[in-house]
Amino acid sequence: MDPAELGDVLAAQKGDEEAFGRLVRLRQGLVTALVASRVRGRSDVEDLAQDVFLRAWRRLPELREPERFTGWLARIAVNAALDHRRRAAVRPRGASLDEGGIDPPADLPGADHGLLVREEFSRVLEALGTLDDRSREAVVLRYREGMAVKDIAALFGDSPAAMAMRLTRALRTLRERLP
What we know:
The protein has 179 residues and is an all-alpha fold.
């Protein structure tokens, strides 16, 4: 964790709302990706992401190791998604673009090209939906959020070697499903 982020965590623990706002902006993509990997429905993903930050704000004084803020926040996000799934009693199997919490790239030119991108994106989301939850989350964190394998491993309590193997297997599965 860089010193500025740690400073914001420490300030937020003391009630500094602006510092917490910076943390929210910094980690919003992570929280959204984790929630979207387990929950269908764009509005549900957005609502849960907001709820995660509200829970984090309320529980921030309880955080004993401020340098582990990101992992702590990620665990809150995963738990919120699991709670939502339990309440809904629905197991996600991938999300359509209309229902999903993740948007396709929007900066590509041409209507025909855009249609092809959306179709391909739908296929990728469907394939991701066939992975087990931990593998899907690991793939999203690695390839959408750009997190390092060692950081993902620490988040899940795995060794970096075990996480690298999980990612390798998940990518192999995705390649098989996306010829």
